[in-house]
Amino acid sequence: MRKEDCFYLGKVVSKYSFKGEVLVKLDTDEPDIYENMESVFVSLGNNLVPFFIDRCRLHKSNLLRIDFEEVKDEPTADKIIGSELYLPLTMLPKLKGNQFYFHEVIGFTMLDEVHGDIGKIVAVNDSASQDLFEVEKDGKELLIPVSDEIIIKVDRENQTIHVKTPEGLVDLYLGE
């Protein structure tokens, strides 16, 4: 399995017991849907290695307590502390309406209420404090905030995102 075919689920943050159980900090708004998993991919080096789960349950708010088949003592658990966990993209819950996963809108056309077609989404930058669509139009890059106030409609069927950008933002990039 390749990372490109998976989504980031969370990270092993600590040991829970001397029997090798670990706590995973989940990166999700709905931790309860991952409570009864049978397996996950653990990132070890440059590889995603399948790990099978004996028991898995929520611990406090967004922590998952996992008892892996392959990890039954503290030294083995120590080896996976800090490792990232992944699941295949096919296991992502389907989103409706204007909700979307960043990876699914790459290649969508962005249509602005005033300017019309302002380009194709080539990436979503989520490394800053504000997530940004990276949109390309005629060799120019536009950075459009990912925001409920800006996004009017996500049209999966036609692969478009309709937006109402703040006045002057598109002109700043395209010089219209």
Task: Give the key terms.
12 strands; PRC_RimM; ribosome biogenesis; mainly beta; SH3 type barrels; Elongation Factor Tu (Ef-tu), domain 3
Topology at a glance:
Elements: E1 6-15, E2 22-26, E3 39-44, E4 47-59, E5 63-68, H1 74-80, E6 84-88, E7 109-112, E8 116-125, E9 132-137, E10 140-145, E11 151-155, E12 160-163, H2 169-174
Parallel strand pairs: 7-12
Antiparallel strand pairs: 1-2, 1-6, 2-5, 3-4, 3-6, 4-5, 7-8, 8-9, 9-10, 11-12
Number-wise, the strands total: 12
Provide the helix percentage. Answer: under 10%
Overall spatial form: elongated
Rg, rounded, reads 20 Å
Order of helices and strands: EEEEEHEEEEEEEH
Output the number of helix runs: 2
Number of domain modules: 2
Biggest sheet statistics:
6 strands, antiparallel, barrel
Subunit structure: Binds ribosomal protein uS19.
Protein name: Ribosome maturation factor RimM
GO molecular function: ribosome binding
Family: Belongs to the RimM family.
